[in-house]
Batch of 2 targets.
Target 1
Amino acid sequence: MMHDIIIIGAGPAGMTAAIYGRRASKTVLMIEAKSYGGQIINTPDIENYPVAPHISGFDFAMKVFEQATALGAETVFEKAVKITPHDGIFTVTTNKADHDGKTVIIATGSENRKLGLPDEDRLVGRGVSYCATCDGAFFRSKTVAVVGGGNTALEDALYLSELAKTVYLIHRRDEFRGAEATAEQLRGRENVKFVLNSTVTALHAEKRLKSITVKNKNGDETELEVNGLFVAVGRIPENQNFAEVAELDGAGYVIAGEDCRTNTPGIFAAGDNRVKEVRQLVTAASDGAAAATEAVKYLNSNR
Ligand code: NAP
């Protein structure tokens, strides 16, 4: 079956694109590898989206998915691995099937960057976490460390300081990339200990994480006993599978402007995986609207 618009990724950008596509009477297939909603489902309380002063990320995702589905968007839960242009259309290959579309919107978002330490993968769920709001409650009155110096790390440390006995904030520089106001709040918390100019170089565990080795810029190593390590060192856009049809910048983001057009006519990029300044829920939704509007223009001019 031929679809007018295939959307890869059913996060806020992809689902908004589906709403706009359906409202323009185009057929829409969303291909989602995990669960709809994307990374916003890990946010317990969204406070910065217009009209909804407080809503959980999970509820937000469910409402948008219901809205897109009620308008007639279809969804398959498969992992898209390739886009092949041929005969003026695109075949999106997944781990299960091939889907044909006249246009494609890549709205794959991003995944957690890892530290790349031995045993890091094995210890996920056994002390290592990439999501403080998901897993923080398991560390009530325990000792945890957060690695990173961006807004995620600072906000994670603040959140964990409400629960944990002690929070080490480990950052490779002595200046934070994240908001100074949050850093200032952290300085006022007695149970937050700053470990600056330092990186984590080893994880030590039996069944669960027990301690970490931290190395400072002079090369001195210290072992810190921790029950949990929250890794918040940024995210990596999930575009590599599509690099042949959508040109990427050095950091792996799709090069596309506000109109979301990639270098391949008929293929668009929307959301956190696109080159942009502000990666927020509202800008992801905005990209979805722009990408679908451009896809509809493309469809109407190529009839
Ligand atoms: P980020 O801003 O890219 O920060 C990543 C941090 O991890 C940086 O401090 C970086 O250090 C450090 N880092 C990177 N690789 C590392 C490694 N291998 N080992 C040790 N440290 C490493 O990522 P983010 O905090 O996830 O934020 C992503 C985006 O979302 C940002 O635009 C952020 O502002 C936004 N955000 C906004 C809010 C909000 O508005 N409330 C909340 C969360 C996130 P360097 O600083 O030395 O490079």
Target 2
Amino acid sequence: MRHFTSLYDVPDLGRLLRTAADVKRNPLARPDLGRGKVLGLIFFHSSLRTRLSTQRAAMNLGLEVIVMNVGSDAWKLEFADGTVMDGDTAEHVRDAVAVMGQYCDILGVRTFAGLQDKEADYAEPVLQAFIDHAGVPILSLESATRHPLQSLADWVTIETYKQVERPKVVLTWAPHPRALPQAVANSFVEWMRQAEVDLVITHPEGYELSPRFVHDTPVEYDPVKAYEGADFIYAKNWSAYYDYGQILSQDRRWLVDAEKMARTSEAHFMHCLPVRRNVVVADAVIDSPQSLVIPQAGHRVVSAQAVLQEMLVHLGG
Ligand code: SN0
């Protein structure tokens, strides 16, 4: 695998999942695979789990890591092509990215949706600039529209904790005070559609995700019905896709609470974190034995390491 920016970059999903299972069993089995190579982690947006878990995964493989927070540490970047750069941007993303590629063997990049212009966000200009100009393999650490490392960790989590062959997995929208991207939800649907699960999406009307991700996945507008018999409740807020970037509802009835969880088949609770407690999920649920948020975050090391292993093997000695 050269780049990892979505499910579509994975040449053999079964093999990636087997690699992840191997990594989970024995994370220190390949301490020399990345020896002499450098992974750059470039952040255009805040991170806790992605930064730490990817660094830990790199360490397990003998990689050296360089981290840069572009927003606070680098020159202010210009993204538009053909601009006369006589304003406040000091360096063009083309030049910055090409230079980063001189210093690193693999580049991880986190970008974020602006949530103003749907076409621009869904064209992934920053991620594409890295692919076009870095000259090295690119690892998405969450882009404007996807978060594939999270989805792989979610898959490993569901595989680990499922108690039936084909669990019912419910992706539920939840309220949030800020407008957030669709990235985590998009990716979760993209990956879960490939898994042996019955996936249901539930959200208030107006929060429909892009049909390019949903396809024929069932959508249920009544959360109480959606929760019925669920084995996993995966909560995430996202802002509207059609009414792009808008907050259409703050309806507290969508909070994941003990009352709704009681209608499930003793479902596990999942969330990618960070989570707004008692807005997205009640303390009683996230602090219950059914909550998987901490092992789910732990699996971020597994997913990052499985992906880095496949990228390093592709890169060769
Ligand atoms: C991000 C998101 O994509 O929704 C990161 C998820 C891994 N979440 C947030 O930005 C939450 C910020 C907040 O204010 O709660």
